[in-house]
Amino acid sequence: MTRHKLESLAARVLKGDVRAAARLITLIEDGSPEALAEMDVLYKHTGRAHIVGTTGAPGVGKSTLTDALIGRFRRRNITLGIIAIDPTSALTGGALLGDRIRMQRHSADPGVFIRSLATRGWTGGLARASVGTIHVMDALGKDIIMVETVGSGQAEMDVIKAADTTVMVLAPGAGDEIQAMKAGILEAADILVVNKADTEGADNLKNYLEAMLGLAERSPQTWTPPVILTDALHDRGIEKLAETLQEHRGYLLSSGEIFRHRRERARLELLTAVADSMKNMVEQIDKNDYLNKLLDDFLSGRTGFRGAYLKIIERLANRFDENRTGGKDGI
Ligand SMILES: Nc1nc2c(ncn2[C@@H]2O[C@H](COP(=O)(O)OP(=O)(O)O)[C@@H](O)[C@H]2O)c(=O)[nH]1
Ligand SMILES: [Mg+2]
């Protein structure tokens, strides 16, 4: 215990310590400034993992598919990090509990690290927590990191964009295909999965999606998203999906596309870190009183919205200046 205390969390994560990883992820979730310093050490050791985002409406079978994929990959000795972004856990705890029970059989396997993130709080927090968690799992040495989200909302779309490979999961019925078109997720998907192939309408949905994809113009060198039929419940089509994931990874590496995704993740992380600390700083000035007075002025009409905004920016700029020239209190 005492020896651990002397070692930084980052150093322990790099040695494969999962408890240190869990602790660091909590610090990231809380937006702790401590996390930033630890992450600084970890970044040099990231960029090796394949980041796979799975998205699709609740109930299409994303978690069941992930579970089946874990089984396939573990047989090849490939290690995994699983991030479940759960929109309902804060309200009901329901879906999350289901996922936990489903993946229980992997919980004793040191080759699998599972972490759930709740979507409560401001949207930037989700992006920070998920990209941060991806990096911790990457530094921990996980080969594939899968992020599951229902893909509604801007923050979730940001997370999906930050993945190397995006898998859109659909199931027959419920008019999912219409939803997918509307959300524009179809364009963002690298692989389409029609799950619940054991139920009515799966073939029709596959044909429909292939027809839709056929309408998009693509140059011959680029990746054409395949549509894969799976039955996650009975472990059918999973091998094909696992192979396609690895094929896409190969395509990303040979085309150099992988660097665009890495850049997107870094961009997202840097911007959320800046936005987070700005927000914290504003809240900390005068222990929040500054902001309260400004809100009073704004709501009573003494200050316009733009005026209030500019005052905050000016105040922050002064604060930065004080800090740089050795002002009394650091931010
Ligand atoms: N018939 C059938 N049911 C499935 C299949 N995959 C998942 N399910 C069921 O669909 C429900 C929702 O699955 P889940 O993985 O929690 O969906 P998620 O919300 O997308 O993560 C569960 O009751 C699963 O057992 C499948 O391929 N066929
Ligand atoms: Mg799920």
The span between the termini is 32 Å
Spell out which ligands are present.
guanosine-5'-diphosphate, magnesium ion
Q: Helicity level, as a percent range?
A: 55-70%
Number of separate strands: 7
Explain this structure.
The protein has 331 residues and is an alpha/beta fold. The longest helix is centred in the C-terminal third of the chain and has 28 residues, at 257-284. The chain has helices spanning 2-6, 9-14, 18-29, 33-43, 62-75, 94-103, 123-139, 154-161, 176-183, 185-188, 202-215, 238-255, 257-284, 289-299, 305-324, and strands at residues 50-55, 80-86, 112-118, 144-149, 165-170, 191-194, 227-229. 56% of the residues lie in helices and 12% in strands. Mean pLDDT is 83; it is low at 89-95 and 327-331. A 7-stranded parallel beta sheet has the order 3-2-4-1-5-6-7, sandwiched between helices. The structure holds guanosine-5'-diphosphate and magnesium ion. Guanosine-5'-diphosphate (GDP) binds at residues 56, 58-64, 98, 195-196, 198-199, 231-233. Magnesium ion (MG) is lined by residues 62-63, 95, 99, 148.
